[in-house]
Amino acid sequence: xxxxxxxxxxxxxxxxxxxxxxxxxxxxxxxxxxxxxxxxxxxxxxxxxxxxxxxxxxxxxxxxxxxxxxxxxxxxxxxxxxxxxxxxxxxxxxxxxxxxxxxxxxxxxxxxxxxxxxxxxxxxxxxxxxxxxxxxxxxxxxxxxxxxxxxxxxxxxxxxxxxxxxxxxxxxxxxxxxxxxxxxxxxxxxxxxxxxxxxxxxxxxxxxxxxxx
Amino acid sequence: xxxxxxxxxxxxxxxxxxxxxxxxxxxxxxxxxxxxxxxxxxxxxxxxxxxxxxxxxxxxxxxxxxxxxxxxxxxxxxxxxxxxxxxxxxxxxxxxxxxxxxxxxxxxxxxxxxxxxxxxxxxxxxxxxxxxxxxxxxxxxxxxxxxxxxxxxxxxxxxxxxxxxxxxxxxxxxxxxxxxxxxxxxxxxxxxxxxxxxxxxxxxxxxxxxxxx
Lengths: 213, 213
Description:
Two copies of one chain form a homodimer.
Chain A: E1 19-20, H1 23-32, E2 36-42, E3 45-51, E4 54-56, E5 59-65, H2 69-77, E6 81-93, E7 101-111, E8 114-115, H3 119-133, H4 146-150, E9 152-158, E10 161-167, E11 185-193, E12 197-198
């Protein structure tokens, strides 16, 4: 299994047994997470913003409007960023308040932005992003016009300095607490898709596509 | 409705109609979100970490181990932080790739940490946090011992500089695209709780509590 190198920034120092540096494990978290937060620092002040993203090979892509202040800011100043994505898998209910926890998978990545200028790479990034959010969608939709491409900014981050932190399994209580009359276990958490509801302005006769059924 | 003042940092400049500064709206997002990301900057380098949190009145609390590097770092250096929490409400499927979006509610807060030293405030923060994650739980569990208190760090952030960004509703397409034979609408997203599963080491006879049924 290919691993990311452990650096000063990515080493999991608190509960190191939860640290994961395996590339496939990290990529699978990124491919499942619906959004990431992008943090950067400007004049010593931290900022962050939630945003959609996708991954292609060892590159993470975010996109936005060319009018987006933060995207212009990090692109033009080539500011170092920290990206993170988190999936919550369950509430871990222990017998003691102290040992309550959550099961989760989170990734943190450090890197610098590269503004994508080749249309082919931009196209691919938007296609993969759309397919990540809704598999099957890209083939159906009207593709971007030249003007739409001009108003879209895509930033790429090479995933080189990255680690994940993962907790799984049941609660871990203190030995003497296992005899308590307190229920303990895990409540799974999952993001579920509800029944799609059509736009009121949907053209008559257009049916719900198979990939949404 | 009480509003947060709009500052240089919290003003929503991109799609300002999505900007929300109403306190109750921001608090309700914070009370629903299961985790936040806490970003800070050290020597110009951005860092961020996902963490659980809760809100009491105008204060946001996070907690962790006194052995947590990042918590000690921001507490001792009183580093400015940026906190954000996001709830994904739906996939917004437009007729054009360009107008695809998501319905979401996100909050961004700027502030400085205050380390909580009064046991009463720490206790209240952990109680409210536990009850946020699992209403009804606090009454059931073994409360922290003195040693557990000593190994827990709670940081408080006054919610004073904050804004939210919210998108709701159907896709908004270009006028000429409404006649296309493409399904458009919203796929709701929701975090759901699965069936709880008991710890293998659960004491015989302990039943699933009513608040988990």
